[in-house]
Design brief:
2 copies of one chain form a homodimer. Chain A folds into 2 domains: 182 residues, Isopropylmalate Dehydrogenase (3-Layer(aba) Sandwich), CATH 3.40.718.10; 148 residues, Isopropylmalate Dehydrogenase, CATH 3.40.718.10. Chain A is 42% helix and 21% strand. The first copy, chain A, has 14 helices and 12 strands. Chain A is globular, with a radius of gyration of 20 Å. Chain A starts with a strand and ends with a helix. The model of chain A has no long low-confidence stretch (mean pLDDT 94). The interface between A and B is large, with 65 and 65 residues. The complex binds 3-isopropylmalic acid (2 copies). One 3-isopropylmalic acid sits at the interface of chains B and A. Chains A, B: Pathway: Amino-acid biosynthesis; L-leucine biosynthesis; L-leucine from 3-methyl-2-oxobutanoate: step 3/4.
Chain lengths: 351, 351
């Protein structure tokens, strides 16, 4: 296969972890006879500095004409504590999601047997956890009208959803559930929000098309609890943009390391693959960031092209690195800590 | 002191747990020479059934003319899976909060030494946790304009905040921090939401009035993680209505039992005191629900009247019940489980 992959390293540790994913992907391509054409492009604070825009048109053109996007991380502390900043790296991310039509963020949460004790949660609570969140990514309060009134004294954000938006996300959820544990949980706040009532009624109406899927409806506050109490009771969870932002980050704690969790954002066409962690500014340039989440995001990318064996080769390499202790300091637990690029080298050699 | 207390038992296990709080409060009143005039009133599904309204005017008059409100629980499953229900018990709760001006929901999360091992989190992660959430309760997306357009195909919920709303909540937060660990965390999503940027800039502007308080700003998704990773790193957290709903429920898991966590909702005048747990419909009438959260809510009520010794008498009784194993089945751990009313009896005898 010949693959054109847009490569958006972004901010902070983004470039370092992306480098490792490139190495590993190239090793996979070599082994399985594919050709990858990497197409680097600017995004985030790096793009603001270079061209004044976090997601420049040029970057969009590169993404839109590629088969997939591999993404590092976005965000820089100099923007976070300045509520009046006009341009923010995050706007680039949101613009990209919207313009590429990436309406479904897929975030698996699973445990690694060798890392069960790294979790802040007790072993018996998390053993066997294997859940996936499908977070709606191009609607809701992120994209509704927002602004100020009364000379800046009043602020507003509008949350809007259409039935069609809910349907296309829910459809992916039902389909995913059919390939897995056949359980679907719709997370909403239907006792308070009208958008949530639209979500719930839309999903209810779709139930009959998937008679094998057992559907439940839970309030977001209840899920925020149950997720840390009994994570292994869930299979597929679907939810709106903001709830998904909060709950997927919460869920990432289960596995014991954010540095291991990949994600995919899918739409009609081009998929975007990225680690769930942020740009970790304090670690920038230190060669200490864990590249595995980005490497596993590349695995999701191959799998999304239907290249299951290629994905598995990456997952197997990661598992054996974990078992052999070829890990960065976040997982070293007093043992030897390898550098970001050393882990990447080891993984690519072991494909 | 002569106290008029509106008594809103509500739905599900509400009446059972409220009965125990009344017993215990009466014992406290007797011991410390106060007089409590309990004024029962209807709310929730019970009120819908009786008068077609979850927070009838008559109930409001009773609350508004009392010194405080003691509240059980609200909610009934028959409304939850019917997105088209016209009247819902929860509307009663929201109307009550708004009409009584209860803009600050105070939710402490602490651990009980004897129960540390009940938590799904590891002991070393939670030991020493003693944090308080101040959740804004009468604004935001709960109360903004909501509805449908396009013949029901589009739903919307508006989130609105004014600077004055943020200020009065933040003021309570700073003041509370001054009486405790002097740390304040403002939880928002200022990288995406305009209302969050208003929150952040308002709190930033207030910092100089409280030079001793160390203020931090964290995104809601990051807090959803850190809360289960390092809960004992927090002291006072302030946040908007919906984030507070999700995070306070998540935090309640830390202590290992929802059945122990009280809360207060404060405004200008009358306070409302209630357990954080729901109406637990499956347990209704079985005399198995844990009354301690409601009993501890009564302790918060006394303390809010400035009656610290009275509050402490209740807390001491609860602690010794926990130490002696006078507990309901949720805490019995294979040992003897006492009934709801037996626990209430024991507590009131041990005041
Ligand atoms: C950086 C931010 C805008 C983003 C979001 O809220 O979607 C991030 O938290 C995420 O989850 O990808
Ligand atoms: C019942 C519901 C409307 C309510 C809320 O969301 O505020 C509850 O979850 C709470 O936290 O008190």
């Amino acid at each position: 296969m010949k693959l054109n992959i847009a490569l958006l390293a972004g901010d902070g540790i983004g470039p370092e972890v992306i480098d490792q994913a490139v190495k590993v992907s190239d090793a996979v391509a070599k082994k399985f006879n594919h050709e990858i054409n990497w197409r680097p492009a600017l995004t985030g604070a790096a793009a603001i500095d270079a061209v004044g825009e976090p997601y420049p048109d040029e970057t969009h053109e590169i993404c839109a004409s590629s088969d997939a996007v591999l993404f590092g991380a976005i965000g820089h502390p100099r923007f976070d504590n300045d509520p009046s900043a006009k341009v923010r790296p995050e706007q680039g991310l949101l613009k990209m999601r919207k313009k590429l039509g990436l309406f479904a963020n897929v975030r698996p949460t699973f445990t690694f047997p060798s890392l069960l004790d790294k979790s802040p949660l007790k072993r018996e609570r998390i053993e066997g956890t294997d859940l996936v969140f499908l977070r709606e990514l191009t609607g809701g309060i992120y994209f509704g009208e927002k602004g100020r009134r009364d000379e800046g004294e009043t602020a507003f954000d509008n949350c809007v959803y259409t039935r069609a938006e809910v349907q296309r996300l829910a459809k992916k959820g039902f389909e995913l559930a059919m390939t897995r544990g056949k359980k679907l949980c719709c997370v909403d706040k239907a006792n308070v929000l009208e958008t949530s009532r639209l979500w719930r009624e839309t999903v209810q109406a779709m139930e009959k098309e998937y008679p094998e899927v057992e559907v439940s409806y839970e309030f977001v506050d209840a899920v925020a609890m149950r997720l840390v109490q009994w994570p292994n009771s869930y299979d597929v969870l679907i939810t709106e943009n903001l709830f998904g932002d909060i709950l997927t980050d919460e869920a990432s704690v289960i596995s014991g390391s954010m540095g291991l969790m990949p994600s995919a954002s899918l739409g009609s066409n081009i998929g975007l693959f990225e680690p769930i962690h942020g740009s970790y500014p304090q670690a920038t340039g230190l060669n200490i960031a864990n590249p595995m989440a980005t490497v596993l995001s590349a695995a999701m990318m191959f799998e999304n092209f239907g290249l299951q064996k290629e994905g598995k080769a990456i997952r197997d390499a990661v598992n054996s690195a974990l078992n052999k202790g070829i890990v960065t300091e976040d997982l070293a637990d007093g043992g030897k800590a390898f550098g970001t690029s050393e882990v990447g080298d080891w993984l690519s050699k072991n494909i």
